[in-house]
Amino acid sequence: MFYRFLTAALLSIAFASGALAADTKPHRVTIQIDQNDPQVMNLVLNNATNVIEHYRAKNEDVDIDVVAYGPGLHMLRSDTSPVQDRIKRLKDMVFPGKIQFSACNNTRQGMEKTEGHEIPMVPDATIVPSGVVHLMELQEQDWSYVRP
Prior knowledge:
Number of domains: 1
């Protein structure tokens, strides 16, 4: 009888621990932008905003990394971005460190070579060596992936 009680108690603890671990798993999503299209850029920002608002309503944290490469780097260029004001507002609406805008350095260097001058980035951009590799590494770390 005691062993049945002990077994039941241990199983209950195991199930409860598993449920608690599942509840504490962080929400993390990376969203790719690889097109120089204001509609797609706005869609990316809409997706990020909707994710933030969803988890904020549930009182849960979420980390977002918007990764720009190829023609999508224009989203993070301070001289060509049609959405830089929205990026600033989005950064201001979330807690520090909860959203990152990653700019592909490979693309940036290619654009600098083609255009013959330094490519200025929006202040909220973080330069990563390779946008595609950054996306791959985030997915390897169990980040969810969205391509609008």
